[in-house]
Amino acid sequence: MSYIDVMNESKFYGEGDTQIAANDKVSFSIAENEFAIIVGPSGAGKSTLLNILGGMDTPDEGQILIDGTDIAQFNEKQLTNYRREDIGFIFQNYNLIPNLTTLENVEMAAELVDHPLNPEEVVEAVGLGHRINNFPAQLSGGEQQRVAIARALVKKPKLLLCDEPTGALDYQTGKQVLSLLYQSKELYNATVLVITHNRALTPMADRVIDISDAKVLTNEYNEHPTPIADIEW
Ligand SMILES: Nc1ncnc2c1ncn2[C@@H]1O[C@H](COP(=O)(O)OP(=O)(O)OP(=O)(O)O)[C@@H](O)[C@H]1O
Prior knowledge:
alpha/beta, Rossmann fold, six-stranded mixed β-sheet, four-stranded antiparallel β-sheet, globular, binds adenosine-5'-triphosphate
């Protein structure tokens, strides 16, 4: 059994003739502590899948086994607990709380769980010790994404879900953020899942799942990932 086993998962939008499958009998597995990338063009169904894995949405068909438990069967309360305790989310647009400082944003996340890491230490670990009392508007895009990563990591999540985490960042800053995400899996023992349309990023991953038109095309394990610093695009 893998850490994530998605089995024949489907998600439909609309009804009757206008119904479309956003995910069509999707199956794949990701092992614990892997850094996985789900890659595919716009509209392929990536965000739908990520939302389902994060317990923000439920599939119409299939099983979503996380550590052996089918979260597709969870009720609202179980999904809320799952999102709060097991998952760290990182979005393209950071989603920080504007009137809270770096430290306060991270502290707020720490309060959600019983055994968080030390917020100050995590802020230091993402390289933002010198920005600890700044508000999001005073930070660069890359710094804001680091706050978002610290906010996710402070909960010690088992699974870090990242939706186009470098989509709003310039090339060099994007590389630094990806490098930090890769380190996160090593330092914090998390399983990391990144979705992106940027195929150039895939050599850095331990596993690449290629989706297109709602279906999984390939799921490949990469024995020798390339450090992100060595990847050019
Ligand atoms: N709430 C919704 N209602 C209706 N259709 C939806 C909804 N969410 C997604 N879809 C459709 O499902 C398909 C998959 O969308 P999804 O957002 O998962 O793709 P994606 O691969 O993440 O694309 P992008 O890279 O552009 O974000 C698309 O055709 C989209 O229009």
